[in-house]
Amino acid sequence: MDSRPSDVSTTPTQVHALPPLPVKIVIAGGFAVGKTTFVGSISEIEPLTTEAALTTVSEGIDDTSKVSTKTSTTVAMDFGRIGLGEDLVLYLFGTPGQDRFWFMWDDLVRGAIGAVVLIDTRRLEDCFPAVDYFEESGLPFVVAINCFDGALAHPPEAVREALGISPDTPIVLTDARDRMSTKSTLIELVQHALARATV
Amino acid sequence: MSPPGTDGAGFRVRPYALTGGRTRSRADLSIETILVRTPAGSTAADRVSVAEKGQILGLCAAPSSVAEISAHLHLPLGVARVLAGDLCDEGLLDFNREHNAAERPSLRLLERVFDGLQAL
Q1: CB contact under 8 A, A88 and B112
Q2: What does the angle CA B100 – CA B101 – CA B106 come to, to the nearest 5 degrees?
Q3: Out of A2, A22, B15, B115, which residue is the most buried by the measure of CB atoms under 10 Å away?
């Protein structure tokens, strides 16, 4: 890591306190799978919503008579924050729910620790695009099965088989409403990212 | 030109009118980059040319990320990022240069996050 020893004061004086260092984790998954609930259960603030305009090129998706059309789509994204000590802040960004265009949004995943792909085993196919995307981009991710009321339609190994994900990608059970459960899911992801970074 | 009402966001002006059509500033900020007002920024809030920049300086009295600026001031993320980047170029906002927006966190940083989460 680059530190610049001479041009800035590196001793922790109060003269010009630098803001905390940010890190981020992406919370992905299908529509209404519990992403905002997951973020809200551990965030120290009420989840905030931000909007981004994305320019997308659609080719015959809506209207085959047009060759390719540039359109502007607005996607909304919920996020939360967790202070980890005085000088480190973890942001959790939930991917826009219904919109397929977030995959074009490199800024969301750029520099991220990794992603939690939240799934509902009754609607497993909803997470396919997210899993494909993270596998392709090489971003460390864990699959977290959101167990509402302890309901688990399919066991983790069946989910692994159905998704066709590699054996070293962790699959965990979580309850998006429960802080301890959310916390251990995030720890699992960071551990996975650490293991990936050390090989 | 996209027809009105397609973005549904209800911005008062075309967002990128605020940034002169730019989608990037010189400072490489990410959506999670945390900004804070510099001493010069504290006294400049009333003198900046764009009202939104003044609001950003006001908000960044407490360290705030680009995403938080966007959410609190109802600015699209891209616009918040360009305006915040301009304010950094002007020396009115600052961020922790240890933060490299383009790279995955280092091993050491991951360990700090791990320890921080354990301690929650």
Answers
A1: yes
A2: 50
A3: A22
Chain A residue at shortest CA distance from B28: A107
* B88-110: average pLDDT: 91
Host domain of residue B35: 15-119
Give a yes or no: residue B92 inside a domain: yes
Say yes or no to pLDDT of A138 above 60: yes
* Torsion angle of the four alpha carbons B104, B110, B113, B119, in this order, in degrees rounded to the nearest 10: 170
Closest chain B C-alpha to A157 CA, distance in angstroms: 26
- A22 Cβ under 8 Å from any chain B Cβ: yes
In tens, the pLDDT along A9-18 reads: 444 433 457 8
Smallest CA–CA distance, residue B38 to chain A, in Å, is 8
Residue B4 lies in a domain: no
pTM reported for the whole predicted model? 0.84
For A153, which DSSP code?
Answer: S
- Chain segment A98-120, per-residue pLDDT in tens: 656 666 567 888 999 999 999 99
How many domains does the structure of chain B reveal?
1
Domain-located, residue B9: no
Residues 6-25 of B with CB under 8 A from A: 6-9, 15
In a domain, B7, yes or no: no
- pLDDT at residue B7 in the model: 43
Q: In angstroms, what CA-CA distances link A83 with A49, A80, B95, B105?
A: 19, 10, 17, 17
CA distance A23 to chain B (A): 7
Question: What three-state secondary structure class fits A43?
Answer: coil
